[in-house]
Amino acid sequence: MSNNGSQQTASLRVQRFNPDTDKKPHYETFTVNITRDTTILDALHEIKTHQDGSLTYRRSCRHAICGSCAMNVNGKNMLVCNVPIKNHLDRKGKITIRPLPYLPVIKDLVVDRTLFWEQYLRVKPWLIPLEDVPEKEYRISPEEVEALNNAEKCIMCGACYSACTVVGSNKKYIGPHALLKSFLRVIDPRDAGVMERLEEVGTDEGVFRCHTIFNCIDACPKGLDPTKAIETLRGLAAKRRAYETAKQQRQKTLNEPIPVRE
Amino acid sequence: MYKTTGYFSFLLRRITGIALVLYVFAHIWVIGSAVQGEQVFNQRLGILTSPLFRIGEIALLAAVFYHGFDGVRLLIVNWFKVTDRRKSMLLAALVLTTLMVIAGGVPILLEILHGAG
User: Fold this and answer.
1) Which one of A77, A212, A218 has the shortest CB-CB distance to B74?
2) Do the beta carbons of residue A158 and residue A187 sit within 8 Å?
3) What is the CATH number of the domain that holds B60?
4) Which value does ipTM take for this structure?
5) Among A30, A201, A217, B101, which one is most buried in terms of CB atoms within 10 A?
6) A 99-118 residues with CB below 8 A of B?
7) Do the beta carbons of residue A42 and residue A85 sit within 8 Å?
8) A213–B78: do the CB atoms touch at under 8 Å?
9) Phi, psi dihedral angles at A95 (to 5 degrees)
10) CB–CB of A59/A73 below 8 Å?
């Protein structure tokens, strides 16, 4: 990174692939001026606006909540919209940007997420409501609330899925993103599909395919812990009937009025 | 390829796992020959007492201990859900493996040197 007053330059090595003309991906290097606050996405915008309009990438909200701009920067998956580029430059001011690994590249930094969403649908990510809705509120323990808070922050960016070594070798694997969502629903006291869900994920295409490599934790831009969710699901899947009964029973007993503390 | 410490430990676990399976075949090949008489058994055992195979024993020691300790690390993660300790536990597994390999490997090396002298 060369200093020039408050402005600096950064060298972006970007993986390019045009399906109409290229047989395989190649790298192109672009130099852009940056300031202290320039994000990686800003630098990509600069290239697209002023240097090469054909550079293709996904982006939307620029607030790290839509999950569109997940990319692989210097070998690590991250959202490029909220990360200052200067934090990832090497000594020579270079940064390497590639599309998410293990997913088919459509063009440049855009990957095909079809399988990602298909696996997501496998776990039925929506809430399956109970037939007998309790008259009073649902009850849930503080530990469960903490676990749910952790799981529901997922923005479906695909960083964990495409960092997973198992996904790289086995496309039937459900993937950490969907297993985390399944965990969210299994723990949720309002959900009636415990048995169905645990049967779907409790197979060698689900939680028992995970090799506990922890890449999903390292890759998650929201600091979530899909491995912990998978480990919990493993235990629940092994005793799914007992868990379902206990969950139902608990809601029945918890439906009693809260004893007023003197 | 997504390279992290987790990937590194997974790769080592796989390689040592395959190495241990291959070792089991070699082990059966030698021990199984006991039923064919003393001469065959001693002949096969003789091949494995050459310095090259003795050094291979040290590698075997490393494979056994790494695979074992890393497996225990994953069991601890599974039981206690301590995913935030994954890197320090990997370091502990590597340190323990190194200590055990030194403890077991030095006597083997000394024996090779003594035997050669």
Assistant:
1) A212
2) no
3) 1.20.1300.10
4) 0.87
5) A201
6) 101-102
7) yes
8) no
9) -145, 140
10) no
Measured between CB atoms, which of A215, A225, A231 is closest to B2? A215
pLDDT tens for residues A186-199?
Answer: 999 889 999 999 99
The model's pTM: 0.90
CATH superfamily of A114-254: Alpha-helical ferredoxin (1.10.1060.10)
A contact test, residue of B83, B86, B89 with most A CBs within 10 A: B83
Task: Return the DSSP state at A208.
Answer: G
Q: How far is CA A171 from CA A38, A157, A162, A168, B25, in A?
A: 36, 18, 11, 7, 32
What whole-number distance in Å separates Cα of residue B33 and Cα of residue B41? 5
Residue B92: CB atoms within 10 Å: 14
CATH architecture of structural domain A2-111: Roll (3.10)
SS3 B47: helix
B67-86 per-position pLDDT tens digit: 999 999 999 999 999 999 99
